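Look over both lines before class:
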Amino acid sequence: AAVDGGVTFFDTAEAYGPFANEEIVGEALAPVRDQVVIATKFGFKFEGGKQAGLDSRPAHIREVAEASLTRLKVDAIDLFYQHRVDPDVPIEDVAGAVKDLIREGKVKHFGLSEAGVQTIRRAHIVQPVTALQSEYSLWWREPEREVLPTLEELGIGFVPFSPLGKGFLTGKIDDKTTFDSTDFRNVVPRFTRENRAANLAFVDWLTKFAERKQATPAQIALAWLLAQRPWIVPIPGTTKRHRLAENLGAAAIQLSGEDLREIDRAASQIEVHGARYPEQLQKMVGR
């Protein structure tokens, strides 16, 4: 359904599952392999099927690449991201390892995720970075300070994850919503009941703005991202076909300069409550 709707860029990682998501994506996209771009990621180690810290040693990067190629059923990985910056491995060594894989034809492009600007610059000298993936949305605009200007300068694309604020910007979550016991949002400070109640102010405003545009809040949030730079490609995750269709509809929404200024004014006047990560996960962010 996604490919039929015009989606050409798919994001996965060995850490999702772990491993199972790559297999599902590989099987689903095998018939249309020549029409799509598949991105995956390395950088974690696993013990007993669970994440057990970071590992971006060059030998491990090669092992992950070989395993991902098999699971994805592809001859080359289109975009190979370091999932999180490993403080124990110089980024030059990481970039060098991916450079070797590119030279061998096993990887086409190198990416980073949640990396800071100095890390990006250091990596880019060794092997040009094609894309950075980090959180960016109307709800989390930190990348605008340093990251976006650096990417623009170096000619690197930006792939925002959680473009809908982990679902909050859809307007379908409030302070009474309960999450499944396995849902990551249970440990995110921004999603405590108290913070959700406080954060509804902006979603309420966004919902009213969307109604004026005959759109949904999610579509406005995605259209806003697409209007920021031509080289931004958000990756909203969805498990429902009707949400897929809704997300794709955002590409047809044109926000005027006045629309964008109005959204910025509203966003600047409303304080977002709660951190985006619990402390132990924030430590993995490379900036």
Residues 1-135 form a domain with the TIM Barrel fold (CATH 3.20.20.100).
